[in-house]
Amino acid sequence: ATCEHGCKYGECTGPNKCKCFPGFTGKTCNQDLNECGLKPRPCEHRCMNTHGSYKCYCLNGYMLMPDGTCASSRTCTMVNCQYGCEEVKGEVQCLCPSGGLQLGPNGRTCIDIDECSSGRALCSYNRRCINTFGSYYCKCQLGYELKYVSGHYDCVDVNECVTNTHRCNLHAECLNTEGSFKCKCKQGYRGTEFDCA
């Protein structure tokens, strides 16, 4: 079976038919499935969608149970957690609904971990890291675009000379470079690359 546009988060099961891995959707399985919007809702109280998955958390005063339900807890009410809590060996601890969040200094609210600046993010050389609340994603570097090439998605150089997105002077010729472009004044013209006279 061949899938012309590939299956980003899934496998090719027939001519241009993708079977998506859990948590993903779309014709080429390139979209994250928002489980929080499904009926019936996967979480009893609150739901946070994550890349390829989701996390449940409870309202203040409730404790997250192993099966994802929320149980009333007097101890939780006293601690006043932002995203519910769990009891470990008789001690109440506040929870954060994502691995990209950490408990703040007060031990009750969750603050974002900037994976991009902390070096925890894993992006390939031609992609840049974009931090989000509770997570991050990798985006193509400027001058590159996401394309499906030889069986997988990759960031490919944009040829600004062909796409006409260069800013070269009318009397200059455009030369494509990796991730950018250069302008060179045509014969008989002089000046800077954007201003040939």
Automatic annotation (TrEMBL):
All residue ranges annotated as the EGF-like domain in the record: 32-71, 112-150, 157-195
Keywords noted in UniProt: Calcium, Cell adhesion, Developmental protein, Differentiation, Disulfide bond, EGF-like domain, Extracellular matrix, Repeat, Secreted, Signal
Major location category of this protein: secreted
Record-linked SUPFAM superfamilies: EGF/Laminin (SSF57196), Growth factor receptor domain (SSF57184)
Subcellular location: Secreted, Extracellular space, Extracellular matrix
InterPro entries found in the cross-reference section: EGF (IPR000742), EGF-like_Ca-bd_dom (IPR001881), EGF-type_Asp/Asn_hydroxyl_site (IPR000152), EGF_Ca-bd_CS (IPR018097), Growth_fac_rcpt_cys_sf (IPR009030), Nephronectin_domain (IPR052235), NOTCH1_EGF-like (IPR049883)
Domain of life according to the entry: Eukaryota
Pfam families, sorted: EGF_CA
Coiled coil: none
GO biological process: cell adhesion; cell differentiation
One annotated GO molecular function: calcium ion binding
Family per similarity comment: Belongs to the nephronectin family.
Identification of the protein by name: EGFL6 protein
Source organism: Scytalopus superciliaris
